[in-house]
What we know:
Number of helices: 37
Low-confidence stretches: none
Largest sheet: 8 strands, mixed
Bound molecules: phosphoenolpyruvate, magnesium ion
Distance between the termini: 40 Å
Radius of gyration: 34 Å
Strand order of the largest sheet: 14-24-23-16-17-18-19-15
Number of strands: 33
Amino acid sequence: MADKKWIYLFTELEEVEKYVGGGWDNVLGLLGGKGANLAEMTRMGVPVPPGFIITTEACNAYLKAGEKFPAGMWDQALIALKDVEVKAGKKFGDPKNPLLISCRSGAKFSMPGMMDTVLNIGLNDVTAKGISELTKDERFVYDAYRRLVQMFGSVVLGIEDEAFEDPLDEYKKKRGYKSDTELKADDWKILTKEFQAVVRKQKGFDFPQDPFEQMRLATEAVFKSWNGKRAIDYRNAASIAHDLGTAVSIVTMVFGNMGNDSGTGVAFTRDPATGEKILFGDYLLNAQGEDVVAGIRNTTPILLMGKELPEANKQFLNICATLEKHYTDMQDVEFTIERGKLWMLQTRNGKRTAQAAVKVAVDMVNEGLITKEKAIMRVTPTQVDSLLHPQFDMAVKQQATKEGKLYAKGVNASPGAAVGRIYFDADTAEKKAKDEKQAVIMVRPFTKPDDVHGMLAAKGILTSEGGATSHAAVVARQFGVPCVVGASDIHVDLDKRVMEADGKVVTEGEWVSVDGTTGEVFMGQIPTISPKLEEQLELMRLLDWADEISATPGIRKAPEGWPTRGLQVWANADYPADARRSRSYGAKGIGLCRTEHMFFEQIRLPIVQRMILAESSEERTVALDELLPYQRNDFEGLFEAMDGLPVIIRLIDPPLHEFLPSQEKLLEEVITMRVKGEKKGLAEKEDLLSKVEAMHESNPMMGLRGVRLSIMMPEIVEMQVRAIFEAAANAAKKGIIVKPEVMIPLTGHVNELKVIQPRLEKIAKAVMAEKNVQFPYKFGTMIEIPRAAVTATEIAEVAEFFSFGTNDLTQMTYGYSRDDAERNFLLKYVEDGILPMNPFQTIDRDGVGRLMRMAVDDGRKSRVDLEVGICGEHGGDPESIEFCHTIGQNYVSCSPFRVPIARLAVAQAAIKNKVK
Ligand code: PEP
Ligand code: MG
């Protein structure tokens, strides 16, 4: 153990690489980000003050041994310090020409401000005099000395900041000083003594005069700060492992406060807000680093540095360019100029906004710095998402939270920010939005298909019940309406027209702000910022590259006959307008058109109800004949919008009672009429009620719906198939290339398909013969029931394609109700770690995913070219998308607004899993 190397000089990077077996990631792991980059800059010939790094292994050994340095570490530190002394031409603790050092924390992943740093170590009563003589600048020296006592006091000895701040403020007041810059040498001398007295008083011992003691204690403090509360909280929030440890960099101090040929600053090599290629940052003439960060003096924009410090500025610009080239990314740097000489104190990849992330990535490809693949990997799907939805200004939101305006939290169902007045039913919401041009937030306990018109008119949707796949969530995402669901702290009182949470009441017509990206709801109006895809040229470019990569044949390893390109992105779209939007967002097909949504339109619903309540097949056919032209029109619009691309249309899926008035409401009306003795219309109402009662099912989600409904009432789907093929034929005759795919939902047994599919195919063929056109088509099924996945081989003998309906498949595999689970227990399950994630948002690979993999494998045993996709909500979730890639699917289908995110995600999946 004693031979183990715990310390590396900045000049010993090769040794580090040898020890960790190469790889920058491993170097970062051992030296921490700050140390590794200081060493790397040293190797590149960039001026870095001499120094050394105490490794993360030393930190971990120290913490493990109950806060004791590992054997040999301190001796190695002293030897390294000797080397630094030689390079700096100064000696640590020397009364005449003392070396001063800083002791800086630096973990593998940047944890800004979470751990500790101590500057100016090496100053004491004696060395302070020595440097004063050397520099002829007592003011600077005693300013530095008091900073050391203050920082050491707070960081190492744990004394509250105020213990130092208060006497400083008092002193300034007494002397009539407004800012620190007015204090003279003698003032700082007095304050240094005062600060030393603070240490004595608070700790019962003197501020250590021995520089080595200072260095030892500071190092220990940095090590210990790894386990400080701030650091632990940050790691939890940023998913950083707790066992990495921090390294310590011991760096020769250089001073920017040694006159007007000195200065210090921080800069980004590009604008971190916009990504524009201009240097961005601030500097201060004659100041120390903390002054820039602390904002006590007005800083100067970095672009003006050339005027005051031309030589150093020139060198600085060159170094910035070199660093960008070397790291092939935007850098965030810190530097100091000491009497005209430039020193670099830090470089790291700069944090940036989503807009900057995209622009920097695309620009760097154009500049030949990185490959397209690298650019794609550098932008996160969440960043793409945030670029497409209006967002709240973070700072304003934080302020609102501070002011107690955060009202409730729920599931972040559909991203984006919405501000509006609340209304509690769809008709009022629509009226207020359309007639009065109000910004509306529709609030309901939950939504149903007949609420859709209100939801579409609203800027945002808020429900107190339901989860990520509830009706409100699905519809909101599909139409890009920001939405928070399952905000269970809210009680919605539809009678009183108010909502209440934690005693705070918001009345209908009052303003709220809904953040669908985070699930937060605020009282009042919070300003938003809103973007458009077609205006975001860099994002469009990046997504084009993403498509290029996904379409590369051979990028995916696959058995013979399976797709070897990456996934395609299709969209879930019901109406031609959605289809057009999807296409403009880059969708390569429609993966799900939920035909029943069209039945809810105002003119159609009465016909649909007549059709459902018909007492004979003939009566039903009359109603269906009326519906057919509507459906044909809808479909024709879809085919036109998707000219040349596949369009999957799903036959009717929900239980029929969803199209009828609610049983409770009817009963209430009937009773009221009876009590009031109203005769007119009573018989019809009673008849309707008894029909609705007859259709009642205890468990409608598992009842007469999907393919079962098709078998029991074939007339409905026969009409739909006729409408689909007539529409396709009409479009084809106009020269449009049509590729209809008819999807049968909720199959559980192959025999169900065997009964219904041939009957429908016969209609398809008949229509083509009648219209005298031929075009390719497919009949296939959704895989939404575990039994269908398990018997995929048999099912694929009949079905020509599979589409995973993972909303239902998750519901049925877990046995969790997709409408209630989140509200009742699921969110708690996730919070407590009982489940690793919400399975309605991200595919549960071990359970639902295993069924999916089996279904693909087995399905392709019967039909090697079986087309497989996904159209559940998971189709727009990047992690689920990667899973779909690995099991060999052809495409993912998601709501139009998620298409751009999915395009990036499918390319990332292809790159990550690329055949080597
Ligand atoms: C599904 O179940 O995943 C699906 C797409 O169908 P729906 O959400 O309409 O039930
Ligand atoms: Mg379903």
